[in-house]
Specification:
This protein is mostly helical. The chain is built from 15 helices and two strands. A two-stranded antiparallel ribbon has the order 1-2. α10 packs antiparallel against α13. The longest helix has 32 residues, at 90-121. The chain is globular and about 60 Å long.
Length: 517
């Protein structure tokens, strides 16, 4: 960032008020010829106009020092740290509001559609087909969608995606009034496929927009807030949709979701910062999807920091989806509770993640390598205890301690998970450029979406074969081994994760944003 540039438009950086750019000589050192020392007051003779060094003028005749001529300038609000600091940035606030509304709408839709599908068909198999229609586009289209986001105005893309998704959601209740379509499963599957496909364009465009709306030193806070919102909308979306169905019927959440997408589109339309794609050079080759995909993969291969960030993010999400898949089974088989009581572990885990986000947001200079190591080891130990200890407690007649122990461990696990997830996403934001950010995030989302499909398939099978407590404990032991391996075999290579490290293969974000009033 240029030294003369201020974070706010129209405000210029002031020179040092005490020295006006010149450093005083050290104590005891002789001043250069013609220079004044701090002990020699400077005044001007009223007769000759010549300077008088060491003269004793009346205090009223002495010129006031420079720093006394103006009041001290208080720190600007946006220079503060924490969630409130980034929310004070107008354009980021609108983007975040759009994210919160669209993600809550997404959770409303998916959960309600699963219930609605079973209501009209009575077949669990069609629920699986519906989820397949939701997940397949995320693997097949994320990378091309990232390239598309790099070529176009990201603000316009996000507005259009939310508007289209809102329209598609409205088609679901409308279809129930059309003869020949009413009560059929295939329209729901087709609408879900289109809905998910459009969402793949929104995701990289949204992720690539964050660094353009906050200061570089606020990236951790901004990422923490976005990741916290993802978890909170997941936690709040399901019970909110359940209440909407209970009080207003099966189709009410569809109208609520459509309205939320409209709010998201309206909110993002208020973003004033330009999110247009960078202009192509006159001698640049014509756009090519395959070439740009290869360029994005090449950037990932050539950047150790981006690779580590990708591994870190993928590890965190694989663990999340594995635990999320095993949660209901763990409640029934280990804690002997209803599979509907997931809030016993989900709410504490969310609180832990929010707490980690708050700490990382206010202390962005924490060592990322040490934070990653501590978080992986802590998460592994928490899961290992969750898997091994309940059986020990039961054998000693202390089964009543199972649930309190699970609540505490879920809190610890959530905090550790946040300490892995948030720095990884922040790193990926910092080490990409506006020209390539969309395609890189598209490629990253493709890898992650493919990776999380593995635990969704294997976790349940392994839990049936060896027991859910052993699978949870085994996952914890695996995380501990990964942490030990990183500390002993790859510790020196983790220096690329630090904030002051600069990966020579990829430029870092350029200027801080200037907001539109």
């Amino acid at each position: 960032m240029r030294a003369s540039r201020s974070d706010d438009p129209g405000e210029q950086a002031a020179p040092d008020s005490a020295t006006d750019g010149a450093a005083p000589p050290p104590n005891g050192a002789a001043a250069p010829d013609g220079a004044l020392t701090a002990s020699e007051p400077f005044s001007v003779s009223s007769h000759t106009g010549s300077p008088l060094v060491g003269s004793a003028l009346d205090a009223t005749e002495r010129p006031a020092p420079l720093h006394a001529s103006r009041a001290a300038v208080p720190p600007k609000p946006e220079d503060r740290t924490g969630f409130l600091a980034v929310l004070r940035r107008r354009d980021f606030r609108y983007l975040w509001a759009g994210q919160a509304a669209s993600q809550l709408a997404d959770k409303f839709l998916v959960f309600t559609l699963l219930i609605f599908m079973y209501t009209i068909s009575g077949r669990a198999t069609l629920q699986s087909v519906l989820m397949l229609a939701y997940t397949v586009p995320s693997v097949a289209l994320s990378a091309p969608a990232g390239v598309y986001a790099d070529r176009h105005d990201k603000r316009s893309l996000m507005i259009a995606c939310n508007a289209i998704r809102g329209f598609l959601v409205l088609l679901i209740p409308i279809s129930q009034f059309i003869p020949g379509v009413q009560g059929q499963a295939w329209p729901l599957i087709f609408i879900m496929l289109l809905f998910s496909s459009v969402g793949q364009v929104f995701a990289p465009a949204e992720a690539a927009s964050i660094p353009s709306l906050v200061l570089r030193r606020q990236m951790t806070e901004a990422t923490s807030l976005f990741m916290t919102t993802v978890i909170l909308t997941l936690v709040l979306g399901v019970p909110a949709a359940t209440l909407a169905i209970a009080f207003a019927g099966n189709q009410a959440p569809f109208y609520i979701a459509a309205a939320l997408f409209g709010i998201a589109a309206l909110s993002i339309s208020r973003v004033g910062t330009s999110l247009r794609a960078a202009e192509r050079a006159p001698d640049a080759p014509p756009p090519s999807l395959l070439r740009e995909l290869r360029e994005g993969l090449a950037l990932l291969r050539e950047s150790p920091a981006l690779r580590f960030g990708l591994y870190q993010l993928a590890l965190a999400l694989v663990v999340v989806f594995t635990v999320f898949t095993l949660g209901p089974v763990y409640l029934v088989k280990v804690l002997h509770r209803s599979d509907q009581d997931t809030y016993f572990v989900l709410v504490p885990a969310t609180v832990g993640l929010v707490a980690a986000a708050a700490v990382l947001g206010t202390r962005p200079n924490l060592s990322r390598a040490r934070t990653l190591l501590a978080a992986v080891l802590t998460a592994g130990l928490a899961l290992a205890v969750m898997g091994f200890v309940p059986a020990v407690l039961n054998s000693h007649g202390l089964a009543g301690l199972d649930t309190p122990l699970a609540v505490v461990l879920a809190l610890i696990f959530g905090a550790a998970l946040g300490a892995v997830l948030i720095p990884a996403f922040t790193l990926l934001q910092e080490r990409t450029t506006p020209e390539t950010r969309g395609r890189i995030f598209g490629g990253i989302f493709t890898v992650i979406n493919a990776a999380v499909a593995v635990p969704l398939v294997l976790a349940g099978v392994l839990a049936d074969l060896v027991g859910v407590d052993r699978v949870v404990a085994g996952l914890g032991v695996l995380l501990v081994l990964i942490g030990v391996g990183v500390r002993t075999l790859a510790w020196s290579r983790l220096s690329v994760l630090e904030r002051d490290s600069r990966d020579s293969s990829l430029a870092v974000v350029g200027e801080d944003p200037v907001e539109t009033p």
